[in-house]
Amino acid sequence: MIGGVFYSFVRRFVASQLSSSLAEALLSYTGPEPERVRTAIAALAKDDLDRVRHFLARANEDYRDVLWWAELDAKEQAQLAALQGMTVNERLFQLGLVSEFDAAVARGDVEALKQLLRRCQLSETDVIANATAALGRA
């Protein structure tokens, strides 16, 4: 029991120290649009102090890069979320991959099919099953 309590305390302490370090690093940015840039850096870094430092350095060079990357990341995350619940054909259509997929099937290119299906955010098991099924129909 004591070991579990100690472990829990250590985890909270480490998380607190990391949060403090992340906050301190983020607050060190004082360039243009500080709140917007800090928010973008936090979103891109995903609680990784090394990534925070990387994006801070880039923001100090040109803050617009960080804002642009965060916007692209947000769009990509929204697109990936939209794929959930879609069929494979709907995902291929949504991502604009239908013609590439059809061409890979026509060539019998298993690796190209697998790469396209991975871009559709399928599990590896589903990638293999769908690639095999597509070639079986060809």
Layout of helices and strands:
Blueprint: H1 2-27, H2 34-45, H3 49-61, H4 63-83, H5 88-94, H6 98-107, H7 110-119, H8 124-137
Helix pairs in contact: 1-3, 2-3, 2-4, 3-4, 6-7, 7-8
Number of helices: 8
**Run of helices and strands:** HHHHHHHH
Which spans have pLDDT < 50 for at least 5 consecutive residues? none
Please tell me the overall pLDDT.
Answer: 83
The amount of helix comes to: over 70%
- Give me the Rg, rounded: 22 Å
**Biggest sheet details:** none
Distance between the termini: 61 Å
The portion of residues forming beta strands comes to under 5%
- The backbone outline, from C-alpha atoms, is elongated
Number of domains: 2
What would you note in describing this structure?
The chain is 82% helix and 0% strand. The protein folds into 2 domains: 81 residues, no CATH class; 52 residues, no CATH class. The protein is elongated. It starts with a helix and ends with a helix. The mean pLDDT is 83. The chain has 138 residues and is mainly alpha-helical. The longest helix has 26 residues. The protein is built from 8 helices and no strands.
